[in-house]
Specification:
single chain, Aminopeptidase, four-stranded antiparallel β-sheet, 23% strand, elongated
């Protein structure tokens, strides 16, 4: 048995428990070959998602996930191209026109607390953002498209690693040339605030830029009884924690949704000693692409001004993350219409801009496209949020996602 076969066998074994077919809300909304594929492979679609969920892999370690996808595509007579490391692409059809569909592969470093029969078997790692569903839906869309009698062009499947880290895997894929010949690109992302059967779309920014800040402070240290004889590092940390977010709110347009939130602070061990070092970490987000490009020098100037009177040394590491996902108008319209074609008139809804980041934005720096928010809430019970150890999704969303992706690709090629 090859390494590829062995890897996929391991994943296949993780599809725990009996798998019943899920309701296909778009049955009969064609094309006929799509209805036929989903009717035949409904259980398999669910099994892929559960297998991936049970065996999650962190960013740039998605070897089993890549192997499973590559194996299924190869079995269908397709020719997937595995990227250096992890991730892959696969073209379906032929012709000059090419549209891309993208999914992400990686999981998060969280301990799962869902109690599912197919819960993560990897300690401290889980699919808490729906990437297992994204991958299964794109695989399903690709295999369904491969059964079409005639495509009016090419559809490129992009299975991207490392969305959850910065710099993300989208940059690697773009650098590797996956957008060559691509005229338009689409993606869907699970949204636990929307019910199953709906896709949320928005023209313009649908996510926010997200940067990471780390500020390391240094001081000679000293006794807390004599702060005037040294540089009070803890006081300086407190000043940054409280004043830097406030100053930013007075220097940028409040309509941009720019917000700095601290997530970690470390300094000292003794109550009566001023420490010699400390560190502050947080995220800086904005919904405005222009402001995002101006934030780094602004933050640096404000940190310098705040710390200047205190004599504390500092090193600022401002790691630019991702720009906002900016949905192009025509692409957003195609995605909206794809939801209507996939489910019916109630299949499409509007959505708001999120303060979360998504590295799908990097593709849209090069080609037009759009991302939609796919409803995964059952409609009753709590809405379990993304990036929480209790996150789960209603698997009826899987065939909806397949249909939306297929209809978006077909409509784009015909546009």
């Amino acid at each position: 048995m090859s390494v590829l076969d062995a890897s996929t066998e391991v994943l296949a074994a993780q599809a725990i428990g009996p798998i019943e077919p899920v309701t296909d809300m778009g049955q009969g909304k064609g094309p006929v070959w799509l209805d036929s594929w989903l009717a035949t492979h409904n259980r398999e679609l669910v099994s892929w998602r559960r297998a991936l969920h049970a065996r999650p892999e962190l960013a740039r370690q998605e070897r089993l996930t890549t192997a499973l996808v590559a194996s299924r595509l190869t079995e269908a007579g397709l020719k997937p191209q595995v990227m250096p490391g992890t991730g892959l692409i696969c073209d379906i059809g032929s012709g000059d026109h090419c549209v891309a569909l993208r999914a992400d592969l990686d999981a998060l470093p969280l301990r799962e607390m869902t109690g599912l029969s197919f819960a993560s078997t990897v300690d401290g790692v889980m699919h808490a953002c729906g990437h297992d569903a994204h991958t299964a839906m794109l695989l399903g869309a690709g295999l369904a498209l491969a059964t079409a009698p005639k495509l009016p062009g090419r559809v490129r499947l992009i299975f991207q690693p490392a969305e959850e880290v910065q710099p993300g895997g989208a940059l690697d894929m773009v650098a590797a040339g996956v957008l060559k010949d691509v005229e338009r690109i689409f993606a869907v992302h699970c949204d636990p605030r929307l019910p199953v059967g709906q896709l949320g779309t928005k023209v313009g920014p649908i996510t926010s830029a997200c940067d990471l800040l780390e500020i390391r402070l240094t001081s000679p240290g000293g006794h807390t009884s004599r702060p005037h004889l040294t540089a009070d590092l803890v006081y300086a940390l407190g000043l940054l924690i409280t004043q830097l977010p406030g100053l930013l709110s007075r220097r940028v347009d409040p309509r941009s949704g720019t917000v700095l939130v601290w997530g970690a602070v470390e300094a000292g061990a003794a109550a009566n000693a001023i420490p010699q070092s400390g560190v502050l970490r947080g995220t800086l987000r904005t919904g405005d692409h222009k402001i995002w490009s101006e934030l780094e020098p602004l933050v640096r100037s404000l940190v310098t001004a705040l710390l200047a009177p205190l004599g504390v040394g500092y090193v600022l590491d401002h790691r630019r993350g991702v720009p906002p996902v900016h949905n192009e108008a025509l692409s957003t319209g195609l995605l909206h219409d794809a939801a209507v074609a996939a489910v019916g008139p109630d299949g499409a809804t509007s959505t708001e801009q999120s303060s979360g980041g998504e590295d799908f934005a990097w593709y849209l720096e090069d080609v037009p496209g759009a991302m939609g928010r796919l409803g995964v809430w059952s409609g009753d019970g709590p809405q379990k949020d993304l990036h929480q150890p209790t996150f789960d999704l209603d698997e009826r969303a899987l065939p909806v996602g397949v249909r939306v992706l297929v209809h978006a690709a077909l409509a784009s090629l015909a546009a």
